[in-house]
Specification:
Length: 162
């Protein structure tokens, strides 16, 4: 029980830091920055943890993603996500509507050989034009002291039509 409390506490701290350090830059400020170089891949999780877009609801401006955990580890994730747009050369952050956006500090466990759905409200980001987008979420192995190497980003692409 103590370990689970520590894990949830660490996840809360990780999410608070990620929200506090969130990049509120506009696309113009990110000129020439390729976001794929900022993605974290954990070598033990790279080919066995994945995410796909399982539903697109344009009338509600929502995308549902499913994270598949085919690893031997229990993984944790939270509500936080980022949306990126492909400009023909680079993936760029889509800015939030509210520069002070915050997400619920909650830890969702995705057990070994299991999956979990997350519905993401795209009205939180600036209106999407037609194009190729992707959602990025971070998962990590719950250990007593999470470090950067234990974070793994999962990505799912989708086409948006207006």
């Amino acid at each position: 029980m103590r370990r689970k409390i520590i894990v949830v506490t660490m996840l809360c701290l990780l999410l608070m830091v990620s929200v506090a350090c969130a990049d509120n830059s506009t696309v113009d400020e990110l000129e020439g920055l390729e976001l794929s170089s900022l993605i974290h891949f954990h070598p033990q999780l790279e080919n066995i943890v994945s995410m796909v877009v399982s539903e697109i609801d344009r009338s509600e401006n929502q995308v549902t993603v499913t994270i598949f955990n085919d690893s031997e580890y229990e993984l944790m994730t939270g509500e936080h996500f980022t949306v990126e747009v492909f400009d023909g050369e680079y993936w760029r952050n889509v800015p939030w509507n509210d520069p002070y956006i915050a997400f619920v500090d909650i830890g969702y466990a995705i057990y070994s050989d299991d999956s979990m759905d997350f519905t993401k409200n795209l009205t939180l980001v600036n209106p999407l034009a037609s194009g190729l987008y992707r959602i990025r979420k971070s998962v990590f192995r719950p250990i007593d002291r999470p470090i950067q190497d234990d974070v793994h980003d999962v990505i799912a692409e989708f086409h948006w039509e207006t």
